[in-house]
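Input record, target 12 of the design panel.
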């Protein structure tokens, strides 16, 4: 991708979008069109139409999304399906209307069926029922992926999608109830350390397996895809291996310096036993992640403390 290419990047204040922003600037791509949520409501088609008309981008990167953990998805299912569906439709359709030739849409591993074989492959899409707890979000992301696929097929525009695994890193959401597992654990152990708590109790047995990818690795993978002449319609971007929740908790306990006891409330549910993605397709194109889990958690904890001190911590 030419550094002078005009790029419209959505969600640049969020975890994914800010990582994309950093990666683009590091590559010398500074001809960027950026809008905050306050400046542009992506659910407002007229506003998106006006913004694209004013900026005239050559590339659009859809990094904005309404995201959250199980509690948030269960509490706000209407908002999750409406906001993600409306923003995807507006950006993809109106990009085509404005002559944008290339668009990268960011999805999620939750698009795949709940009972799909592990590791999850791109071919498992729409082969079975979704996980009920995040179905509204998943349906919106599937719709965005399919919009890209069919606009590419019918109109010849290079619209394609990337499906990341569980992400973590700078700019994450650390809300006590609405965040994902890794940032939630990081905040709990940090606060326990600061308060001198004798122990931290976590749900379940700690045995479920999860895959984690640092958001800067995702951004590098997205730029790699944007450099391909003929990328797949959609492709997984994952770390390639998984760890138990207990292993993650022990790394975070060590990194945060927590000296107390780690307890497990086995009367609480474990959730899905395993969720691992196959990243074979993107690896075959020459990309692979660079940031190990412990190194990534150490970097993320420093970012957490910096954001907390600056008053910019999300959640």
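The sequence produced for target 12 reads:
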């Amino acid at each position: 991708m030419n550094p002078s290419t005009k790029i419209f990047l959505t969600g640049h204040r969020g975890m994914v979008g800010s990582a994309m922003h950093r990666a683009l600037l590091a590559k010398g791509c500074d001809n960027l069109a950026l809008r905050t949520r306050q400046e542009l409501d992506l659910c407002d088609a007229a506003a998106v139409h006006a913004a694209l008309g004013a900026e005239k981008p050559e590339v659009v990167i859809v990094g904005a999304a309404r995201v959250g953990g199980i509690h948030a998805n269960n509490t706000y299912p209407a908002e999750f399906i409406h906001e993600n569906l409306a923003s995807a439709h507006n950006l993809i359709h109106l990009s085509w209307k404005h002559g944008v030739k290339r668009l990268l849409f960011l999805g999620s591993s939750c698009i795949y069926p709940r009972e799909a074989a592990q590791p999850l492959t791109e071919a498992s899409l729409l082969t079975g029922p979704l996980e009920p707890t995040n179905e509204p979000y998943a349906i919106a992301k599937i719709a965005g992926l399919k919009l890209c696929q069919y606009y590419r097929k019918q109109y010849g525009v290079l619209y394609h999608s990337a499906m990341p695994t569980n992400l973590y890193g700078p700019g994450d959401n650390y809300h006590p109830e609405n965040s994902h597992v890794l940032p939630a654990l990081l905040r709990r152990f940090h606060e326990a350390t600061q308060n001198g708590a004798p122990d931290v109790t976590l749900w379940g047995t700690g045995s479920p397996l999860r895959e984690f990818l640092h958001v800067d690795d995702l951004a590098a993978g997205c730029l790699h895809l944007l450099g391909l002449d003929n990328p797949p319609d959609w492709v997984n971007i994952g770390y390639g291996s998984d760890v138990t929740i207990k292993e993650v908790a022990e790394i975070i306990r060590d990194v945060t310096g927590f000296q107390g006891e780690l307890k497990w409330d086995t009367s609480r549910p474990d959730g899905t036993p395993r969720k691992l993605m196959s990243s074979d397709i993107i690896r075959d194109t020459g990309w692979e992640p660079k940031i190990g889990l412990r190194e990534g958690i150490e970097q993320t904890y420093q970012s957490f403390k910096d954001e907390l001190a600056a008053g910019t911590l999300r959640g």
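The first helix runs from residue 15 to 26.
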